[in-house]
Amino acid sequence: MVAKRIIPCLDVLNGKTVKGLNFINLREIGDPVEMGRLYAENGADELVYLDIDASYQGRGAFLSLVRKIAAGVKIPFTVGGGISSVEDASALLDNGADKVSINSSALENPRLIDDLALKYGSQFVVVAIDALESTGVWRVLTKGGRYKTNRELFGWAKEVADRGAGEILFTSVGNDGTHKGYACDPTARLGGMINIPIIASGGAGEMSHFAKVFNDGEADAALAASVFHNGSITIGNLKRYLKDKGINVRVD
Prior knowledge:
The protein is α/β, with parallel strands linked by helices. Helices cover 36% and strands 28% of the residues.
């Protein structure tokens, strides 16, 4: 059985790690390279770095930071933000990223998923999907959760998988930053309908939330930010807790 993964997420704005609520009211909380190094030392399985303003502002991906991360962090890391072409992805991978994550650009040009998977293989391609539930419909959002699209979560997820994505990073925008738990029902539905790993994101507040999204949500990995950043949960303690609950996690 493949071990469940714990993935700290570092949202990056202007070279600094930031955190907010529902993608707004952002504040600086630390250096992304040093924070990544500490998470790796404490047992994180992977890291995700998201340049959260890049797609909105139309900036290119932050190559200099990626090089520093690759030099200082010894676990796999994914980079997203501002990736709108195969050339953008190539630059990131050539500078040390292990995977790339695309979101707004995939919605604007779905063929980009096919092109990246064809050139690099599905294992290098993560498609992030931000969605918000309203009156029973999960609507996909774009540009860092700022705008609604006409895409529906489950239909878009199936297309993403069919086009060759290796993983889906699903963020429930309504749960993000609330510390009230992950959106387990849609996470489980996603996992049941497609055959690629689902990374759950948005809402972690206590260790039981991770156990619930692995059990009830059937997630392959759980991503979180503030509970790790503020020290309320340490990765070592979390993994021991999950192990005691019978969940298969890697414990060094």
